[in-house]
């Protein structure tokens, strides 16, 4: 996936593409953030505005200390049933399959949706095809594993809108993985702090954290996530997937194993907040590792933490971003740069490769 502009979307007068995403405890976040990241780009490339609804048993956060928090913008009792796209991610989905009301909603919404995209579990009455990354049958698109869903979404956008969005070149690097229960370790959890804010590119941090979420499952270490913003709560936008901050920076831990800072097209919501910048600077100084993705390097540079260090950032905004920060040893030709405990990457999927 090449680097893309995150400037303001084109102003279209068309009716928004209404997208419903089923979310639930233990849902594989990259299953739906990967595909929806393509749909989020549709307004920016002049195709159509979009409107997201994340749908669960009830509205509100779905939190787990060992996984990135999910936010449901609506419960299924109040969710729209007339959708353009219904997207159903995988995971340990017994919380859904044991809820008759939820299943009934999904059935009704699927029957009325223009398109249904899903990662599904075996049922004998279905004509299953083993050797396929994804299968199309009428208006129903089903994919195999996590990144197959990203490739499927790319193909869907190209097919349905006759428009090519950035190519998912990184997906082949991430193997499909088991969603079984994690190994039981007695070690201290790896404490990961993720900076989130209005306009942040979700795939900037969901991509890297998806790898980190698998550490308990592969017997490496338990993990503990903290999504950190100005204050605890949801950061919503009808045209972007909702972001949930598990804590405000005033109450956030400063002793982190990993601090991850994603980028956006406009970081001013962070760079204009001195308290937020001060927190990031303190946390970066104490963290074992600091990772930035895309224009997240600008945020870290603004704190002064990158002074004297080698770093890189988004190439589309490169000249604009590096000009004010002359004390940083910027490297243009790099997907990512490592300087001591600080890792900085260029575009969205460079963060996943990093």
Provide the residue-averaged pLDDT. Answer: 83
CATH topology of the largest domain: Rossmann fold
Question: What is the H/E order?
Answer: EHEEEEEHHEEEHEHEEEEEHHEHEHEEEH
What gross morphology would you assign?
globular
Strand content: 25-35%
Low-confidence stretches: 1-7, 167-180
- Helix-residue proportion: 25-40%
Structural class: alpha/beta
- What's the CATH H-level homologous superfamily of the largest domain? Class I glutamine amidotransferase (GATase) domain
Tally of discrete structural domains: 2
Integer-rounded radius of gyration? 20 Å
Could you say what the CATH architecture of the largest domain is? 3-Layer(aba) Sandwich
Distance between the termini: 14 Å
Summarize the SSE layout with pairings.
Elements (H helix, E strand, L loop, with lengths): L16 E6 L6 H12 L9 E7 L3 E5 L2 E6 L1 E2 L9 E4 L5 H4 L2 H13 L2 E5 L14 E4 L2 E4 L2 H16 L28 E6 L6 H12 L9 E7 L3 E5 L2 E6 L1 E2 L9 E4 L6 H4 L2 H13 L2 E4 L3 H7 L7 E2 L6 H5 L6 E2 L5 E4 L2 E4 L2 H6 L1
Parallel strand pairs: 1-2, 1-6, 2-5, 6-7, 7-9, 10-11, 10-15, 11-14, 15-16, 16-20, 17-18
Antiparallel strand pairs: 3-4, 8-9, 12-13, 19-20
Helix pairs in contact: 1-4, 1-5
Structural write-up:
With 354 residues, this protein is of the alpha/beta class. The protein has two domains: 17-161, Rossmann fold (3-Layer(aba) Sandwich), CATH 3.40.50.880; 190-353, Rossmann fold (3-Layer(aba) Sandwich). It is built from ten helices and 20 strands. The strands form five sheets. A seven-stranded mixed β-sheet has the order 5-2-1-6-7-9-8, sandwiched between helices. A seven-stranded mixed β-sheet has the order 14-11-10-15-16-20-19, with helices on both faces. It starts with 16 loop residues before the first strand and ends with a helix.
């Amino acid at each position: 996936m090449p680097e893309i502009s995150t400037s303001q979307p084109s102003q279209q007068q068309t009716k928004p593409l209404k997208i419903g995403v089923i979310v639930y405890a233990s849902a594989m976040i990259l299953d739906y953030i990967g595909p929806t990241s393509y749909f989020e780009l549709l307004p920016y490339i002049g195709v159509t505005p979009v409107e997201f609804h994340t749908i669960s048993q009830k509205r509100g956060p779905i939190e787990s200390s060992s996984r990135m928090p999910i936010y449901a913008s609506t419960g299924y009792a109040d969710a729209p049933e007339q959708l353009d796209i219904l997207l159903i991610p995988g995971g340990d989905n017994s919380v859904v399959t044991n809820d008759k009301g939820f299943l009934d909603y999904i059935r009704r919404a699927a029957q009325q949706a223009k398109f249904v995209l899903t990662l599904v579990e075996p049922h004998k009455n279905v004509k299953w095809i083993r050797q396929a990354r994804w299968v199309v049958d009428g208006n129903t698109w089903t994919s195999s594993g996590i990144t197959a869903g990203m490739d499927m979404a790319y193909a869907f956008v190209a097919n349905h809108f006759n428009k090519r969005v950035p190519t998912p070149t990184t997906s082949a690097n991430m193997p499909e993985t088991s969603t079984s229960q994690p190994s039981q370790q007695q070690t201290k959890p790896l404490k990961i702090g993720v900076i989130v804010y209005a306009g942040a590119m979700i795939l900037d941090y969901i991509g890297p954290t998806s790898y980190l979420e698998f550490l308990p499952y592969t017997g490496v270490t338990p993990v503990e996530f903290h999504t950190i913003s100005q204050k605890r709560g949801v950061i919503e936008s009808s045209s972007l997937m909702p972001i949930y901050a598990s804590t405000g920076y005033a109450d956030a831990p400063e002793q982190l194993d990993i601090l991850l800072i994603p980028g956006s097209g406009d970081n001013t919501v962070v760079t204009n907040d001195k308290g937020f910048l001060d927190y990031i600077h303190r946390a970066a100084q104490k963290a074992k590792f600091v990772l930035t993705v895309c224009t997240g390097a600008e945020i870290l540079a603004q704190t002064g933490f990158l002074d004297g260090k080698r770093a890189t950032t988004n190439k589309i905004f490169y000249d604009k971003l590096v000009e004010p920060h002359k004390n940083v040893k910027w490297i243009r030709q790099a997907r990512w740069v490592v300087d001591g405990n600080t890792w900085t990457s260029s575009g969205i999927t460079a963060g996943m490769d990093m």
